[in-house]
Amino acid sequence: MAHRIATLGDITSQFDVIFSDVWGVLHNGVTCFPAAGAALADARADGKTVVLITNSPRPAIGVIPQLRALGVPDEAYDRIVTSGDVTRELIAEGPKKVFLLGPERDLPLFDGLDVTVVGEDEAEAVVCTGFFDDETETPEDYTDMLKAFVARSAPMICANPDLVVERGERIIPCAGAMAVYFEQLGGEVRIAGKPHAPIYEACFAAAKEVRGEFSKDRVLAIGDGMPTDVKGAISAGLDLLYISGGIHAAEYTLNGEIDEALLNSYLKSQNAAPGWWMPRLA
């Protein structure tokens, strides 16, 4: 059974390295959670190495200004590793004519790669970073397009495996939902972000650059997403602090408060056993 803690500082003496999720832990896409950034900054001041691990489809260099704009302090982390960073390797290894399924702001994902961004009819692969309009669309709106890719065996490279994300008070679909639907239609999906191994391997390498050698049993993962953060931490063999106030809060909230019995029942139903939990990182 997961133990509730009051602050991150209650458990940091057990760890040297922290892999923290970003969206849902440090911010909700509209505003930052100041206490969360302060908690990670305090951990760094205490000698811990903090690597932010995010399923953002943007390379890390593009995430930094976004974090600053939202008010996340630079002092909260040592390195950032994104799904975009590790997905670039999948793109480089794949077909050379690619179609971007997602907003144009994600075009930097292809910078420096030997690929050509083409129209959907010419594409040999589709790189999905999200929806053209994630405020109104669902994966089913893309059925005809996706079936055409399946029919000619063009794979989908999913740059953001998240199924949904918080945006303010709303839940918004992400590229991971598109990838699930593409597989249901019979398509092949390639993913490197959470919960898959490549992004965790990159995080270990980033942490090693900062502090040198360390033991895996001295690494703490922090996250709120069950299919990504939690499953990824389990697969990587990491201790986990679960942030319960994120995308799954409705599963165990009763009368406006998180019900601990419902929470533990939910975690058990997901075969998840985090060591600790708290509503929001602090």
Annotation keywords:
alpha/beta, Rossmann fold, about 280 residues, single chain, about 20% strand, 5-stranded parallel sheet
What does this structure look like?
The strands form four sheets. The chain has a seven-stranded parallel beta sheet, sandwiched between helices. The protein folds into two domains: 3-84 and 195-278, Rossmann fold; 86-191, Rossmann fold (3-Layer(aba) Sandwich), CATH 3.40.50.1000. It is an alpha/beta fold and 282 residues long. It has helices at 34-45, 60-70, 83-93, 143-151, 175-184, 197-211, 226-236, 260-269; strands spanning 3-4, 17-20, 49-54, 79-82, 97-101, 116-117, 125-128, 156-158, 164-167, 170-173, 189-191, 219-223, 239-243, 253-254, 257-258, 276-278. Helix 1 (34-45) links the parallel strand 2 (17-20) and strand 3. The mean pLDDT is 96. The protein contains eight helices and 16 strands.
